[in-house]
């Protein structure tokens, strides 16, 4: 029986290991984490993350060949293949602050592996890391090894939240990078044999370590760049009367461009895109490639611009003041079908509106009040630093925020509604009922192209939708200004 241990029971480690256990009944998989609360949750009926289909996969193999444990060292010592899927936050201080990845958690995991290992191990980088991290990890392991052979592989994860189980069940590709030595090649084959149980051979791509590490950063940078490109066009559409969804449809018909991932939005979020691009920027700078760094930095810059443009639109439409006005925020997660709020555009939009003295009433079907309050109180990049995740004392600004149980409650008595996440339920709300209960003029600011603009205008709403021609009412207002 092959023994696998994964360090880090997070969004990546948990579902990925559950799928390996599910597809390989003869492999023993133990997921370990220093957070006992997280491990307890994985062992309970309420898993720590919401992901469609995950409960079924975990239930099918938990306590058979899938285990969750906080006994980190014992399971690491016992395993042949160790996946490392720990946090790699963006540094908030020191050299490279605001860009570089903080590898503290990685380094401590590597030192622990070296300390407890009594047999040869394959150590697999699963969390996204800067290019050449494997080299540093290799040094830490070999200098502390006591004669044990460690092979480092890079096996970046491409799952997207909300579709993780689908992505893991039939991945478009599995990347395995390793050293081009006999030992490296043998390690690649060992990991390949695990994936080969359910992934077709032509989808398992092997390459050198640095290519695998860079491919992950480049893939996320390209995806984010598509969104920033559409978001840049969305601003031009609003200014000219073009419709960004028609433009996206037209350009997506070109098979060289393709139709996926062209939805203009209030801005991309999630734990990967911004972090990985900033990482790429930092690596370029370190290698003297200032122009390349600046090129990628613009992708993040446009994303910031899109969020602040949205806040400006809300404030300027509502007669240049939202002070004391109730505004409903529908959706807080960074996209639908997840309870994850890391880097969600909703945080910046809410903070922007709170800064202008608005009173926010927030509703999200999957995000708890505690999480929302914590997110609004945290400084940028702190979400990935566990030491900052202690419950914070409610700050003064949070008094302007209430978190409610449904969209109708959020919108009652509000002057405006901001749609931040494309949850399906927001498409089928009774907008007439919502309109009746709101202050007039009643505004809808759709950051996700969820609502039917024409229908809402017929009801009487003033509607702003990213990248769509401005509401005639807004145009008149701007002309008068
Ligand atoms: C991403 C990558 O897709 C995945 O391959 C990688 O492993 C991790 O990072 P994820 O962050 O889970 O996955 O979500 P993704 O679906 O890529 O969406 C990221 C953000 O972009 C979300 O906020 C989403 O709403 C936004 N988005 C996506 C758009 O605004 N427009 C689009 O067309 C697509
Ligand atoms: P990702 O989205 O990449 O999966 P998460 O932040 O969700 O990232 O998960 C990372 C997990 O790694 C956290 O649960 C954290 O407690 C855990 N972790 C960090 N360092 C260590 C370590 N040295 N040993 C065990 N677990 C660790």
How many strands, what sense, and barrel or not for the largest sheet?
A: 6 strands, parallel
Ligands bound, unique: uridine-5'-diphosphate-xylopyranose, adenosine-5'-diphosphate
Number of helical regions: 18
Count the beta strands: 14
Share of helical residues: 40-55%
CATH architecture title of the largest domain:
3-Layer(aba) Sandwich
Give a written overview of the molecule.
The chain contains 18 helices and 14 strands. With 481 residues, the protein is an alpha/beta fold. It has two domains: 197 residues, Rossmann fold; 260 residues, NAD(P)-binding Rossmann-like Domain (Rossmann fold, 3-Layer(aba) Sandwich), CATH 3.40.50.720. The strands form three sheets. The protein has a six-stranded parallel beta sheet, sandwiched between helices. It has a six-stranded parallel beta sheet with strand order 11-10-9-12-13-14, with helices on both faces. Strand 9, helix 13 and strand 10 form a beta-alpha-beta unit. The radius of gyration is 24 Å and the shape is elongated. The mean pLDDT is 93. The structure holds uridine-5'-diphosphate-xylopyranose (UDX) and adenosine-5'-diphosphate. The site of uridine-5'-diphosphate-xylopyranose (UDX) has 19 residues, from helix 9.
In short:
This protein has 18 helices and 14 strands. By secondary structure, it is α/β, with parallel strands linked by helices.
Write a concise keyword list for the protein shown above:
binds adenosine-5'-diphosphate, Rossmann fold, 43% helix, six-stranded parallel sheet, 18 helices, binds uridine-5'-diphosphate-xylopyranose, 14% strand, 2 domains, alpha/beta
């Amino acid at each position: 029986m092959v023994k696998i241990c994964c360090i880090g029971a997070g969004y990546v480690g948990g579902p990925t290991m559950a799928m390996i256990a599910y597809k390989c009944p003869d492999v023993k998989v133990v997921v370990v984490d220093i957070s006992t609360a997280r491990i307890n949750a994985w062992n309970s009926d309420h898993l720590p993350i919401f992901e469609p289909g995950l409960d079924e996969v975990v239930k099918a193999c938990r306590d058979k060949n899938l285990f969750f444990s906080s006994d980190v060292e014992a399971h690491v010592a016992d395993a042949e293949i160790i996946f490392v899927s720990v946090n790699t936050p963006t540094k908030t201080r020191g050299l490279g602050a605001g860009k570089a990845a903080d590898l503290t958690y990685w380094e401590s995991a590597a030192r622990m592996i070296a300390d407890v290992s009594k047999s040869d191990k394959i150590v697999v980088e699963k969390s996204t890391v800067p290019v050449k991290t494997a080299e540093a990890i290799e040094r830490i392991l070999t200098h502390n090894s006591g004669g044990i052979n460690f092979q480092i592989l890079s096996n970046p994860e491409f799952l997207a939240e909300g579709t993780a189980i689908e992505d893991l069940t039939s991945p478009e590709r599995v990347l395995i990078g390793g050293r081009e030595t006999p030992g490296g090649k043998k390690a690649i084959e060992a990991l390949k044999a695990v994936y080969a149980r359910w992934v077709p051979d032509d989808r398992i791509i092997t390459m050198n370590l640095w290519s695998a590490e860079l491919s992950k950063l480049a893939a996320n940078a390209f995806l984010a760049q598509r969104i920033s490109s559409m978001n840049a066009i969305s601003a031009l559409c609003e200014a000219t009367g073009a419709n960004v969804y028609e433009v996206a449809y037209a350009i997506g018909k070109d098979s060289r461009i393709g139709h996926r991932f062209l939805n203009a939005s209030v801005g991309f979020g999630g734990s990967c895109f911004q972090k990985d691009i900033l990482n790429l920027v930092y690596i370029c700078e370190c290698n003297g490639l200032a122009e390349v760094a600046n090129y990628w930095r613009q992708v993040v810059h446009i994303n910031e611009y899109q969020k602040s443009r949205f806040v400006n639109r809300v404030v300027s439409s509502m007669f240049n003041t939202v002070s004391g006005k109730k505004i409903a925020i529908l959706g807080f997660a960074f996209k639908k079908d997840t309870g994850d709020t890391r880097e969600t555009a909703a945080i910046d939009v809410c903070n922007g509106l709170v800064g202008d003295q608005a009173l926010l009433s927030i509703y999200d079907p999957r995000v708890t009040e505690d999480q929302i309050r914590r997110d609004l109180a945290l400084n940028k990049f702190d979400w990935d630093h566990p030491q900052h995740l202690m419950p914070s004392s409610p700050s003064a600004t949070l008094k302007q925020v209430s978190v409610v149980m449904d969209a109708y409650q959020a919108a009652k008595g509000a002057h405006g509604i901001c749609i931040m996440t494309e949850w399906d339920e927001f498409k089928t709300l009774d907008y007439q009922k919502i309109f009746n209960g709101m202050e007039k003029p009643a505004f809808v600011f759709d950051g996700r192209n969820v609502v039917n603009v024409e229908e809402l205008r017929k009801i009487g709403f003033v509607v702003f939708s990213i990248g769509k021609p401005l509401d005639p009412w807004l145009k008149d207002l701007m002309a008068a200004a």
